[in-house]
Amino acid sequence: MKITFQINGVEREIDSPPMKRLLDVLREDLRLTGTKEGCGEGECGACSVIVDGEVINSCLAPICQMQGANLLTAEGLSRDGRLDPLQQAFLECGAAQCGICTPGMLISARSLLDANPRPTRDEIKEAIAGNLCRCTGYIKIIDAIEFAAGARR
Amino acid sequence: MAVGQNVLRREGYEKLTGAARYIDDIALDGMLYGKTVRSAIPRGRVKTITFDPGYDWSRVVIADYRDIPGDNYVALIENDQPLLAETEIRHCEEPILLVAAESKREAEIAARRVIIEYEESAPLLTIEQALNSDETIYGSDNIFKRFLIARGDVDEGFKQADHIITGEYRVPHQEQLYIETQGMIAIPAKDSMTVMGSMQCPYYVHKAIKQLFNLQDEQAIVIQTTTGGGFGGKEEYPSMIAAHAALLAHKAQRPVKMIYDRSEDIASTPKRHPGIIRHRTGVMSDGRLIASEIEILFDGGAYATLSSVVLSRGAIHAQGPYKCENLRVTARAVATNTPPNGAFRGFGAPQVTFAYELQMEKIASELGIDPLELRRVNMLREGDITATGQRLTWSVGSEAVLDAAVERSGFVEKRRTISQNNSGAKRRGIGLSFFFHGAGFTGSGEAKMKAQAGVEITPEGRARVLAGSTEIGQGTRTIFCQIVADELGISYDDVEVEDPDTSRVPDSGPTVASRTCMVVGRVIQLAARESKDRLLQFVAERFGESEVKLIEGWFTADGKRLVRFDETAREYVNLRGELRAYARYASPPGVEWDDDTYSGDAYPVFSYGADVAEVEVDLDTCEVTTLKITTAQDIGRAIHPILAAGQIEGGTLQAVGYGLFEELVWDRGRVVNNRLTNYIIPTSLDAPEMETIIVEKEYPYGPFGAKGVGELPMDGAAPAIAAAIYNATGALVNEIPITPERLLAALENMPATDSRQARSDQR
Amino acid sequence: MVHDPAAWSPTSLDEAYELLAERGSEATIIAGGTDLMVALNSRSLDAGEFIDIWRLDELRGVSDEGETVRIGSLTTYTQLIKSPLIQQNLPSLVESSRTIGAIQIQNRGTLGGNIVNASPAGDSLPVLAAFDAELEIGSVRGVRRVEFNRFYTGYRKTVMKPDEILLAVRSRKLKPNERSFFLKVGARRAQAISKIVMAVNVSTTGAVINSINIALGSVAPTVMRAVETESLLTNENLDPTNIERARRTISQEIAPITDVRSTEHYRRTVAGNALAKILHRLM
Fold this sequence. Notes:
The complex is a heterotrimer of chains A (153), B (763) and C (283). Chain B is 30% helix and 25% strand. Chain B has 763 residues and is α+β, with helices and mostly antiparallel strands. Chain B folds into 3 domains: 27-121 and 191-255, Aldehyde Oxidoreductase, domain 3, CATH 3.90.1170.50; 275-442 and 596-762, 2-Layer Sandwich (Aldehyde Oxidoreductase, domain 4), CATH 3.30.365; 451-584, Aldehyde Oxidoreductase, domain 4, CATH 3.30.365.10. The relative contact order of chain B is 0.13. Chain C is α+β, with helices and mostly antiparallel strands and 283 residues long. Chain C is built from 11 helices and 14 strands. Chain C has a 5-stranded antiparallel β-sheet. In chain C, strands 11-12-13-14 form a 4-stranded antiparallel β-sheet. In chain C, strands 1-3-2 form a 3-stranded parallel β-sheet, with helices on one face. In chain C, strand 11 (178-186) and strand 12 form a beta hairpin. Chains A and B meet through helix 2, helix 3, helix 4 and helix 5 of A and helix 1 and helix 17 of B.
């Protein structure tokens, strides 16, 4: 099946088995390996991407449903190799330890801040509840998102 | 000064842009995908193996134990674990065969088309079964290892005791749940084998590969790729998956990638040892512990692997940071027909800490003594003697952490008032735990290993660290750079770390046991000092000065700047060739351990911690919400405060998981909750607020005073939460995780007058 | 096991009906994929053909029909949560949608998918049962309506025919003197399959219960209404004695099992406690 979509601001067309997971299309066909597989069952959120403004688990989305969609992955967050304020906040606050959950966390955080620029700490926790982290205890991730939200004043 | 500052992480940028390459992000030309065919039964023999004739096997590479060039075992301690089963099966998921195909899906399909017939035997699946059965699955009595630690005269002590309190505590299997599953790529070459992947200990993998493929040191090349979490789960297991990939690569003469999916990873890789710990404590009426008898039983699974070392640490920590002159600890690691258990942050200490802290709660309750007072009466302080006869002479932050946690949390006041606000179905409680963790390898481990590390000064005037330690999220590269920068008096930005590639870095020992900063960091500091001394000497000779110093990138004498560090480095290398200095670990003076009597200085130094947990229990559903944890941890010196706090917060949440949510559920020897939907780790909505207090009682033999931080945080939260639940509900639950189902059962088993009355602080 | 299943992505309902008439017995309908893709990924679903209905905008939208609300089957949980119509008239459906998975699941999971997936643990199902909802089912043969409470015939079995597609859910609105309650207990606060899930609709006049609908999930092979407990309480006073009787009755009336998530005893106890708590709050 031929599918055309926008990814990180660039239009792409691919030819793929229709039920191939969006995650695999990103990682294999497009060689965008920033989006990760942690569980294959929509629990860990490491595969999170933004589709038409909403964050979803790309391990649960078949590519046939991405026709005409507008996608944002972790690679699309920074411009010209520079960290965006959210990424910078993660770096300075110690929000990434092993880093495997980080792309998904950034995507969920970006989706939150786009809709809600000044979230409460509780709203931040809700927004990342579908992104599992085993290293940080979430504390510095929440701190970083709060910090970035303040910086976006 | 870089040490003590929150410098930007060396490893940070790539992780934030999605550019960091974990093993599954790497694809090589001609690469095949491997899959393991595993035993479906817990005990028995393989009768027949049939390859489904309806499948096209010409597209598949198959390997079994006969393809192994060396001997069929994965090198570790006892070397009893085969790489691939021959005919005997000792646990579910035991690897039997390997297949490789052009795609991951094809490999999975091929693996499913291998038909294995078994002859089953009755398995021993629990500690009780292993001890009580006439069947032996290991040695003559199903015991991998025993330890006895004894001091004084326990029987006499019990005679003197005013009260004797007994308790039995049970702890489950816990899964490390690194978010990146295990994975390796093996690349064969004419006279060598390269493996790269997710791991903590490149030299463990190196040792295993050398033996299995009959290779010399330089013919086996092991490279760690960016690793998405380890927590001990990637200490020993990577040797097996690396060797599996290598065996397929060897047979196919093509690179082979193996990445586990989550359900295979949970079902077949090593877990925290489950256990039963029994306490019998003789106590005087004023709260002094006078006699302590502790029995430890750990379930090691089917092969010895690391059980002896886990048991050792458990036995040494079993009495906790408390004085007791009369002590007997008997510890056994038992064999069962389950996948071998192994390393997980804490390594025996979280298990026994849950037990000794709950025992202290029980003692406080039965004696009517305040639990905080009980800790103060018995705690080890500077100058006191531990269970193994070690005098605590330096860096003893025991009292400091307890004071800090109690004060910051408002523990005393809250204990008094918390029950006043309890009404209806929601009950609040507050509880504390007090614990310690020996840093570095136990006993003579470090002295025997003599970990090595080096520093190279490049012609550009940069310093490069050469160490086998790995970065797995804790910030290894960053702290190494900080240490070297300050030792050399150069900028943090001018220090880098060589990749952990066994062809380029020495064996600094494994990245485990809270040793990376304290031991390896120290060795690196000494190597940096050595390289600096050589340059100082060089400059002194050049300029005819006797007292040369290195300050902020300049060599100086009599307060005058002579020459810059980078210029000097260039000159030195041009004239004398490379500048590389190596150092090896040596125990601090006076540190001695006797393996035969299992006594002496078990660790060069201990780290100390105290946790205060505040919970709310919903009596209608028995759900426990952890509201807040205040934790004070003495880690000697925080080289990087944010990274140190990150270790403490992350370890504390893993311990919350241990205390409330996580356990493996079994059915006839196989794990039934091997998916993320039913192996429950905390989400952001389950994580408590945390207040972290870093206490710094400098350790004179650690780099800039630092000792171990990695594992200490894992020890305290589970018992603190259990104590808080006790405070809230009156139920002292002696088994973790304290799921709502267990709490409901405990509340129902209590006398009716107790169960719905929150008795807050009368003990 | 099929390597790369085929899929058709019809762009109109008529096209979908045609496909189903032809391939309905062989093909599996996929909406947001939050249940099916998990099964496909874990190889527990062996399906060679899919009919992807994601492009059928006819199945989206929440509309006010006066006495009733009509919810298109492709409405996602996020859309339900944000819909003023649902917030005002089916508040327990908003509550239930908030407890499902996490934001990633809520953005893609659909109400129709939850219904047709027929899991006994479906979190929206007790709400629909308590509201006596109605389902609109279509095929080439026309449209029919089925009472939600007659939709399930057994564990993971429904009255759907192979050529049919769920078009919409229709429900009455919460009445002026009626209150709705929702409770889900899971192993953690997000991303949890329910151990027990309950929805209660109750109207009272003074201290008397006029009507009460109690629906539960995860305590039987399908979503169920606790009819015995309902009839025990109907036209009765809301008082401690009746509440205790209701607690005992419901905990015996349900048929929970012990499984990897929880125990029979826990489910029975919590069902009773949850109902008692709701009734006490009304008192």
